[in-house]
Protein backbone atom coordinates (compact mmCIF):
# COMPACT_ATOMS: atom_id res chain seq x y z
CA UNK A 1 0.00 0.00 0.00
CA UNK A 2 2.85 2.35 0.88
CA UNK A 3 4.45 1.77 -2.54
CA UNK A 4 1.18 2.35 -4.41
CA UNK A 5 0.42 5.52 -2.47
CA UNK A 6 4.03 6.62 -2.74
CA UNK A 7 4.22 6.29 -6.52
CA UNK A 8 0.94 8.16 -6.89
CA UNK A 9 2.18 10.92 -4.59
CA UNK A 10 5.34 11.17 -6.73
CA UNK A 11 3.15 11.50 -9.84
CA UNK A 12 1.03 14.17 -8.13
CA UNK A 13 4.16 16.12 -7.17
CA UNK A 14 5.40 15.93 -10.75
CA UNK A 15 2.04 17.26 -11.99
CA UNK A 16 2.37 20.11 -9.51
CA UNK A 17 5.76 20.93 -11.03
CA UNK A 18 7.84 20.09 -7.96
CA UNK A 19 9.91 17.83 -10.20
CA UNK A 20 10.08 17.54 -13.97
CA UNK A 21 7.28 15.45 -15.39
CA UNK A 22 7.41 11.71 -14.76
CA UNK A 23 4.70 11.15 -17.33
CA UNK A 24 6.77 9.65 -20.10
CA UNK A 25 7.41 6.18 -21.44
CA UNK A 26 10.48 5.78 -19.22
CA UNK A 27 8.20 5.61 -16.17
CA UNK A 28 6.43 2.55 -17.58
CA UNK A 29 8.31 0.05 -15.38
CA UNK A 30 7.28 1.96 -12.27
CA UNK A 31 3.67 1.70 -13.44
CA UNK A 32 4.14 -2.05 -13.88
CA UNK A 33 5.47 -2.43 -10.33
CA UNK A 34 2.64 -0.21 -9.16
CA UNK A 35 -0.02 -2.51 -10.62
CA UNK A 36 1.67 -5.59 -9.15
CA UNK A 37 1.49 -3.87 -5.76
CA UNK A 38 -2.20 -3.11 -6.40
CA UNK A 39 -2.69 -6.85 -6.99
CA UNK A 40 -1.13 -7.54 -3.59
CA UNK A 41 -3.42 -4.96 -2.02
CA UNK A 42 -6.40 -6.64 -3.63
CA UNK A 43 -5.42 -10.11 -2.39
CA UNK A 44 -4.74 -8.94 1.17
CA UNK A 45 -7.90 -6.83 1.14
CA UNK A 46 -10.04 -9.80 0.10
CA UNK A 47 -8.39 -11.91 2.81
CA UNK A 48 -9.26 -9.31 5.44
CA UNK A 49 -12.79 -9.05 4.11
CA UNK A 50 -13.25 -12.82 4.29
CA UNK A 51 -11.89 -12.82 7.85
CA UNK A 52 -14.09 -9.98 9.11
CA UNK A 53 -16.94 -9.49 6.62
CA UNK A 54 -19.42 -7.91 9.03
CA UNK A 55 -16.85 -5.45 10.39
CA UNK A 56 -16.17 -4.06 6.92
CA UNK A 57 -19.53 -4.34 5.18
CA UNK A 58 -21.50 -2.67 7.99
CA UNK A 59 -19.06 0.23 8.20
CA UNK A 60 -19.64 3.19 5.85
CA UNK A 61 -15.96 4.15 6.25
CA UNK A 62 -15.06 0.95 4.35
CA UNK A 63 -17.10 2.09 1.36
CA UNK A 64 -15.56 5.55 1.55
CA UNK A 65 -12.09 3.97 1.46
CA UNK A 66 -13.09 1.75 -1.44
CA UNK A 67 -14.44 4.71 -3.44
CA UNK A 68 -11.38 6.87 -2.78
CA UNK A 69 -9.06 3.97 -3.67
CA UNK A 70 -10.97 3.26 -6.89
CA UNK A 71 -10.95 6.92 -7.89
CA UNK A 72 -7.21 7.18 -7.22
CA UNK A 73 -6.44 4.07 -9.26
CA UNK A 74 -8.68 5.27 -12.09
CA UNK A 75 -6.74 8.51 -12.31
CA UNK A 76 -3.46 6.59 -12.33
CA UNK A 77 -4.75 4.35 -15.11
CA UNK A 78 -5.79 7.40 -17.17
CA UNK A 79 -2.41 9.01 -16.63
CA UNK A 80 -0.67 5.81 -17.71
CA UNK A 81 -2.87 5.53 -20.80
CA UNK A 82 -2.22 9.15 -21.66
CA UNK A 83 1.51 8.36 -21.66
CA UNK A 84 1.31 5.13 -23.64
CA UNK A 85 -1.16 6.59 -26.13
CA UNK A 86 0.83 9.81 -26.65
CA UNK A 87 2.22 8.87 -30.07
CA UNK A 88 -1.12 7.77 -31.53
CA UNK A 89 -3.37 10.47 -30.09
CA UNK A 90 -2.88 14.01 -31.36
CA UNK A 91 -4.82 15.49 -28.39
CA UNK A 92 -2.67 16.56 -25.41
CA UNK A 93 -2.81 13.77 -22.78
CA UNK A 94 -4.46 14.22 -19.37
CA UNK A 95 -1.34 15.17 -17.51
CA UNK A 96 -0.01 17.49 -20.17
CA UNK A 97 -2.78 20.05 -20.47
CA UNK A 98 -1.76 22.93 -18.22
CA UNK A 99 -5.33 23.47 -17.08
CA UNK A 100 -5.60 19.79 -16.07
CA UNK A 101 -2.38 19.36 -14.14
CA UNK A 102 -3.13 21.08 -10.87
CA UNK A 103 -6.75 19.87 -10.48
CA UNK A 104 -5.63 16.33 -11.35
CA UNK A 105 -2.82 16.49 -8.81
CA UNK A 106 -5.17 17.92 -6.19
CA UNK A 107 -7.79 15.20 -6.75
CA UNK A 108 -5.06 12.52 -6.61
CA UNK A 109 -3.75 13.85 -3.30
CA UNK A 110 -7.25 14.02 -1.83
CA UNK A 111 -8.08 10.46 -2.97
CA UNK A 112 -4.96 8.98 -1.41
CA UNK A 113 -5.17 10.96 1.81
CA UNK A 114 -8.81 9.84 2.18
CA UNK A 115 -7.83 6.24 1.39
CA UNK A 116 -5.13 6.25 4.07
CA UNK A 117 -7.27 8.01 6.65
CA UNK A 118 -10.34 5.84 6.03
CA UNK A 119 -8.19 2.73 6.14
CA UNK A 120 -6.84 3.63 9.55
CA UNK A 121 -10.18 4.79 10.89
CA UNK A 122 -11.79 1.47 9.90
CA UNK A 123 -10.30 -0.11 13.01
CA UNK A 124 -11.87 2.50 15.24
CA UNK A 125 -15.30 3.02 13.67
CA UNK A 126 -16.70 -0.49 13.30
CA UNK A 127 -19.81 -1.38 15.27
CA UNK A 128 -19.75 -5.12 14.52
CA UNK A 129 -16.76 -7.44 14.95
CA UNK A 130 -17.77 -10.99 14.10
CA UNK A 131 -14.91 -13.11 12.85
CA UNK A 132 -15.75 -15.28 9.89
CA UNK A 133 -16.05 -19.02 10.58
CA UNK A 134 -13.42 -19.58 7.88
CA UNK A 135 -10.71 -18.27 10.24
CA UNK B 1 12.97 5.41 31.11
CA UNK B 2 9.26 4.56 31.04
CA UNK B 3 8.46 7.15 33.68
CA UNK B 4 10.53 9.82 31.92
CA UNK B 5 8.66 9.22 28.67
CA UNK B 6 5.28 9.32 30.41
CA UNK B 7 6.22 12.52 32.25
CA UNK B 8 7.22 14.08 28.94
CA UNK B 9 3.94 13.11 27.25
CA UNK B 10 1.86 14.33 30.18
CA UNK B 11 3.76 17.61 30.37
CA UNK B 12 3.41 18.34 26.66
CA UNK B 13 -0.24 17.35 26.36
CA UNK B 14 0.61 14.48 24.02
CA UNK B 15 -0.83 11.89 26.42
CA UNK B 16 -4.21 13.67 26.64
CA UNK B 17 -4.39 14.06 22.88
CA UNK B 18 -3.45 10.44 22.17
CA UNK B 19 -6.02 9.14 24.65
CA UNK B 20 -8.79 11.34 23.30
CA UNK B 21 -11.36 9.51 21.09
CA UNK B 22 -9.69 10.36 17.75
CA UNK B 23 -6.11 11.10 18.78
CA UNK B 24 -4.60 7.68 18.13
CA UNK B 25 -6.27 7.11 14.72
CA UNK B 26 -5.28 10.62 13.56
CA UNK B 27 -1.66 9.99 14.59
CA UNK B 28 -1.70 6.58 12.87
CA UNK B 29 -3.08 8.09 9.66
CA UNK B 30 -0.36 10.76 9.68
CA UNK B 31 2.23 8.05 10.38
CA UNK B 32 1.08 6.06 7.38
CA UNK B 33 0.99 9.16 5.19
CA UNK B 34 4.55 9.96 6.25
CA UNK B 35 5.80 6.51 5.32
CA UNK B 36 4.00 6.72 1.97
CA UNK B 37 5.84 9.99 1.29
CA UNK B 38 9.09 8.29 2.25
CA UNK B 39 8.58 5.18 0.11
CA UNK B 40 7.21 7.14 -2.84
CA UNK B 41 10.17 9.45 -2.98
CA UNK B 42 13.20 7.71 -1.55
CA UNK B 43 11.93 4.33 -2.76
CA UNK B 44 11.44 5.60 -6.32
CA UNK B 45 14.91 7.15 -6.29
CA UNK B 46 16.39 3.86 -5.01
CA UNK B 47 14.62 1.92 -7.77
CA UNK B 48 16.00 4.38 -10.32
CA UNK B 49 19.51 3.75 -9.00
CA UNK B 50 18.86 0.03 -9.42
CA UNK B 51 18.13 0.62 -13.09
CA UNK B 52 14.35 1.07 -13.37
CA UNK B 53 13.17 3.90 -15.58
CA UNK B 54 16.34 4.21 -17.61
CA UNK B 55 16.40 7.66 -19.19
CA UNK B 56 14.80 9.45 -16.23
CA UNK B 57 17.40 11.87 -14.88
CA UNK B 58 18.79 10.92 -11.46
CA UNK B 59 19.01 14.57 -10.44
CA UNK B 60 15.29 15.04 -11.22
CA UNK B 61 14.22 12.17 -8.99
CA UNK B 62 16.66 13.28 -6.32
CA UNK B 63 14.54 16.42 -6.00
CA UNK B 64 11.90 14.20 -4.41
CA UNK B 65 14.21 13.35 -1.51
CA UNK B 66 13.39 16.48 0.57
CA UNK B 67 9.74 15.40 0.39
CA UNK B 68 10.84 12.01 1.69
CA UNK B 69 12.64 13.77 4.52
CA UNK B 70 9.38 15.58 5.32
CA UNK B 71 7.66 12.20 5.46
CA UNK B 72 10.36 10.90 7.77
CA UNK B 73 9.94 13.90 10.08
CA UNK B 74 6.17 13.32 10.20
CA UNK B 75 6.89 9.72 11.19
CA UNK B 76 9.41 10.80 13.79
CA UNK B 77 6.92 13.13 15.45
CA UNK B 78 3.98 10.71 15.36
CA UNK B 79 6.24 7.82 16.38
CA UNK B 80 7.39 9.80 19.40
CA UNK B 81 3.76 10.46 20.26
CA UNK B 82 3.01 6.71 20.21
CA UNK B 83 6.11 5.84 22.23
CA UNK B 84 5.64 8.44 24.95
CA UNK B 85 1.91 7.73 25.35
CA UNK B 86 2.32 3.99 25.94
CA UNK B 87 6.04 3.34 26.54
CA UNK B 88 5.51 -0.06 28.15
CA UNK B 89 3.93 -1.33 24.92
CA UNK B 90 6.92 -0.32 22.83
CA UNK B 91 10.10 -0.46 24.92
CA UNK B 92 9.74 -4.20 25.58
CA UNK B 93 8.29 -5.01 22.19
CA UNK B 94 10.73 -7.02 20.02
CA UNK B 95 9.05 -5.81 16.82
CA UNK B 96 9.60 -2.19 17.85
CA UNK B 97 13.21 -2.86 18.83
CA UNK B 98 13.85 -4.56 15.49
CA UNK B 99 12.18 -1.64 13.71
CA UNK B 100 14.53 0.81 15.44
CA UNK B 101 17.47 -1.37 14.38
CA UNK B 102 16.46 -1.21 10.73
CA UNK B 103 15.86 2.55 11.00
CA UNK B 104 19.40 2.90 12.31
CA UNK B 105 20.66 0.82 9.38
CA UNK B 106 18.72 3.02 6.93
CA UNK B 107 20.12 6.13 8.59
CA UNK B 108 23.71 4.87 8.34
CA UNK B 109 23.03 3.97 4.71
CA UNK B 110 21.87 7.52 3.97
CA UNK B 111 25.02 8.88 5.60
CA UNK B 112 27.12 6.48 3.51
CA UNK B 113 25.35 7.63 0.32
CA UNK B 114 25.84 11.34 0.93
CA UNK B 115 29.48 10.99 2.00
CA UNK B 116 30.55 8.70 -0.84
CA UNK B 117 28.53 8.80 -4.04
CA UNK B 118 25.67 11.31 -4.03
CA UNK B 119 27.47 13.78 -6.33
CA UNK B 120 28.49 10.99 -8.69
CA UNK B 121 24.88 9.75 -8.93
CA UNK B 122 23.40 13.18 -9.54
CA UNK B 123 25.87 13.91 -12.32
CA UNK B 124 25.58 10.50 -14.00
CA UNK B 125 24.04 10.68 -17.44
CA UNK B 126 20.34 9.68 -17.67
CA UNK B 127 20.89 6.56 -19.74
CA UNK B 128 23.97 5.26 -17.92
CA UNK B 129 23.90 3.02 -14.84
CA UNK B 130 25.32 4.21 -11.52
CA UNK B 131 28.26 2.57 -9.77
CA UNK B 132 28.03 -0.75 -7.97
CA UNK B 133 28.35 1.04 -4.63
CA UNK B 134 25.36 3.27 -5.39
CA UNK B 135 23.32 0.22 -6.41
CA UNK B 136 24.25 -1.52 -3.16
CA UNK B 137 23.20 1.55 -1.19
CA UNK B 138 19.90 1.64 -3.10
CA UNK B 139 19.29 -2.04 -2.35
CA UNK B 140 20.07 -1.66 1.35
CA UNK B 141 17.83 1.41 1.54
CA UNK B 142 14.86 -0.36 -0.09
CA UNK B 143 15.24 -3.49 2.03
CA UNK B 144 15.73 -1.52 5.24
CA UNK B 145 12.62 0.62 4.74
CA UNK B 146 10.55 -2.43 3.77
CA UNK B 147 11.73 -4.11 6.96
CA UNK B 148 10.81 -0.99 8.95
CA UNK B 149 7.28 -1.15 7.50
CA UNK B 150 6.90 -4.87 8.25
CA UNK B 151 8.21 -4.50 11.81
CA UNK B 152 5.94 -1.51 12.32
CA UNK B 153 2.96 -3.59 11.28
CA UNK B 154 3.98 -6.42 13.60
CA UNK B 155 4.25 -4.15 16.66
CA UNK B 156 0.61 -4.67 17.52
CA UNK B 157 1.03 -8.45 17.49
CA UNK B 158 4.02 -8.46 19.84
CA UNK B 159 2.63 -6.18 22.53
CA UNK B 160 3.66 -7.20 26.04
CA UNK B 161 2.80 -9.32 27.86
CA UNK B 162 1.34 -11.60 25.19
CA UNK B 163 4.58 -11.97 23.24
CA UNK B 164 7.17 -10.77 25.69
CA UNK B 165 10.61 -9.77 24.53
CA UNK B 166 12.63 -12.95 25.03
CA UNK B 167 15.95 -11.15 25.09
CA UNK B 168 14.91 -8.41 27.54
Helix share of residues of chain A? Answer: over 70%
N-C termini distance of chain B: 14 Å
Helix content of chain B: over 70%
Major sheet size, sense and barrel closure of chain A: none
What general outline of chain B do the C-alpha atoms trace? elongated
Radius of gyration of chain A: 17 Å
Note poorly predicted spans of chain B. Answer: none
Strand content of chain A: under 5%
Briefly note the structural class of the backbone of chain B: mainly alpha
Mean pLDDT of chain A: 80
Which terms would index this structure?
heterodimer, A: 135 residues, mainly alpha, 5 helices, 71% helix, B: 168 residues, 0% strand, elongated
Description of the structure:
The complex is a heterodimer of chains A (135) and B (168). By secondary structure, chain A is mostly helical. Chain A has one domain. Chain A has five helices and no strands. Chain A has helices at residues 2-15, 28-51, 53-57, 60-84, 98-125. Mean pLDDT of chain A is 80; it is low at 87-93. In chain B, α3 (23-49) packs antiparallel against α9 (132-154). Chain B has one domain. Chain B has helices spanning 2-12, 14-18, 23-49, 58-62, 65-85, 87-91, 94-116, 118-123, 132-154. Chain B starts with a helix and ends in a 14-residue tail after the last helix. Chain B has 168 residues and is mainly α. The longest helix of chain B is centred in the first third of the chain and has 27 residues, at 23-49. The A-B interface holds A 1-3, 5-10, 13, 18-20, 22, 24, 26-27, 29-30, 33, 112-113, 116-117, 119-121, 123-124 and B 22, 24-25, 28-29, 32-33, 35-41, 43-44, 47, 52-57, 60-61, 63-64, 67, 149.
Summarize the structure.
The complex is a heterodimer of chains A (135) and B (168). Chain A is mainly alpha-helical.
Amino acid sequence: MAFVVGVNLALAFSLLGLIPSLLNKRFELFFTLHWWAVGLIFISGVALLIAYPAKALTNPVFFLKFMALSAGLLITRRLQHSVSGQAANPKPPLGDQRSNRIPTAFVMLVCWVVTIGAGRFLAYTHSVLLASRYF
Amino acid sequence: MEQALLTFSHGTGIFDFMHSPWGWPVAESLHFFGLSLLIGTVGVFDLRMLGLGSGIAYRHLHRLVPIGVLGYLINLVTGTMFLTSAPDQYLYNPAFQTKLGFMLLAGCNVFWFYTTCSTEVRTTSDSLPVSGRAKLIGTVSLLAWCAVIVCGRLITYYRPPYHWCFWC
